[in-house]
Amino acid sequence: MIERVKSAMVGLGASWVLILMLVLSVVSLAIMLERLWLYMSLRDDVPNLMRELGRLLRAGDLDGARRRLEASPSAEAAVVMAGIVEAPQGADAAEEAMAGASALQRVKLERRLAFLGTLGNNAPFLGLLGTVIGIVGAFDELGKQKNATMQAASSAIAPEAVMSNIAEALVATAVGLLVAIPAVAAFNAFQRVVRTTLANTDALSHVLLAHLKATGEPSAEADEAVEAAASRPSPSKRSKGASKDADDN
Predict the structure, then answer these.
(1) Within 10 A of 207 (CB to CB), how many other CB atoms are there?
(2) How far apart are alpha carbons 43 and 220 in whole angstroms?
(3) Radius of gyration (Cα) for the chain, nearest Å?
(4) DSSP class of residue 144?
(5) Nearest in space to 211 (alpha carbons), one of 74, 99, 66, 42
(6) pLDDT tens string 123-165
(7) Cα dihedral: 192, 195, 197, 200 (round 10)
(8) Cβ neighbours of 113 (radius 10 Å)
(9) Angle CA(15)–CA(19)–CA(20) in degrees, nearest 5?
(10) What DSSP character marks residue 155?
(11) How big is the CA angle at 204 (ends 113 and 82), to the nearest 5 degrees?
């Protein structure tokens, strides 16, 4: 069985590994460019957006806040926009709507990043596989030449086929690293963009929730006043009691 596996490996060689890694590198580059274009298209001045949103909400201009968010291309604005839509239903409804919108934006931002992470982790192993195949081929070729050169001098130069297989093995390792390093770098950079976007989204969401909770929930003094009013008898009851006392007299 070992001979069959060795024959298959030597017969195929490491060329197919190099072709596979070349295809994967092209796909990886396409994903990097597509993700970069997406993140650039979603860029906005989030600190300025937060200041303007807070100013509009403090002024009670909910329509102005909606227009400002609609004018922003950012994912942060899209999430808070979902909360603005549900704002008339209360702070809890707005918070749930923003949580759902944030989950959708996260899926959008992280799409295809798993491919980059997987490729970055496994491309060196693919290169190592090509290296192993090349070394196996080199030793197999060296074994074939051994019998033919038994009578030759021991210092004879290694056959050209052996050197070619060794070179192919080393090239496979180098290509694996060249494919993995950009993929890992891009994956880490894009993950940082996603984390930053989600953090900005959380900050903007709290600006809206703070406004809704401040305007939609009664204060403690108002609660005490309502309870005191409820505990006092109504004017009609007091008048009926007064008339009853007069009749008794």
Answers:
(1) 19
(2) 42
(3) 36
(4) H
(5) 66
(6) 999 888 888 887 877 777 676 666 555 545 444 445 666 677 7
(7) -130
(8) 17
(9) 115
(10) T
(11) 80
